[in-house]
Every structure is written in C-alpha cells, then in structure tokens.
C-alpha cells in the first residue's frame, strides 16, 4: 500500500475529530487518563500553521498527528534543544498494524533534518508500558517519567500527570 504524508487542511477537521474520538474511546477502555475533547480552534490553528499532518492511503486518512518546534511545558530546560515534537497520533482502525508510527518516524527524520533539528521528541501521559515498548521499537529512546511543573494552557489530560518522554537523536554530518 502506498502511504503519502501531507499537511491536513480544513476539509479534514471532521475526520481528525473522528479519529481523536476513536483514540479517546480506546484509551477509556485501557487507562485512567485519556484525551479530552480538543478545542476546534487548536486544530484550526495547527492547520493554518502547517503543523497538522495526515497519512493518506487509498484516498483515506490512515492517521493524523501534530508537530511543533517548541514544547517548553513538557520538555522544560531541554526545550532549548533544536527539536521536532510530535503530538496526538491518532490512527484509523482500518490501518492499524501497518507500522504507521514507524512511517511517521521515517518522515520525521527527513522533516527534522530539513528544519535543522537535532532531536525528534514525543511524550505520552502515564507509565504505559505497552506504549513505552512500542515507541522504543519504533526507534525512540525512553527518557523516563517526569512530573510536569506547569500545565496551565495544556490539554486537560496533562493536569497532575506523570509523563513518559521519548527522543530520537539525529546524526549530524
């Protein structure tokens, strides 16, 4: 199957929220912490800033995610490193098991290098051993658990949360 990665657009908003709802419903069956309903303005802003992405195959969105080059509340003093941060990966159930995160990682390596970034970073709320194992299999180093100091302005699932941090270091030539 041929997967293509491109920026999301305003016509994708309903599908983005559908995939977030599927992911949240799944999280509710497995974990005590789950995604809140995200503010539509957040997604619209990410789209207008070309920071909301989609992977498309056979005319369908296989998964979505967001990126930023700045994440100070989660990465604190490490935020000064030149990094690409990936947030809110949500997969279409019809495409699960097809290595989508691995495909995102390969894309992110190129995108980060094009933008002079040395690291690719992600976080997930909680001590989710399944996700920790999965993300490390996708090439991330697990940086451990961190209690966030300042969550004001972050989505609600970060309140009073312990966060797992992940990083890939890119080779510099």
Automatic annotation (TrEMBL):
Species, as recorded: Stygiobacter electus
A Pfam family per the record: Acetyltransf_1
InterPro entries named among the record's database cross-references: Acyl_CoA_acyltransferase, GNAT_dom
Name listed for the protein in its UniProt record: GNAT family N-acetyltransferase
CDD domains tied to this protein: NAT_SF
Domain N-acetyltransferase: 3-161
Gene3D superfamilies with a match to the protein in the record: 3.40.630.30
Molecular-function GO terms, alphabetical: acyltransferase activity, transferring groups other than amino-acyl groups
Ranges annotated as spanning the membrane: none
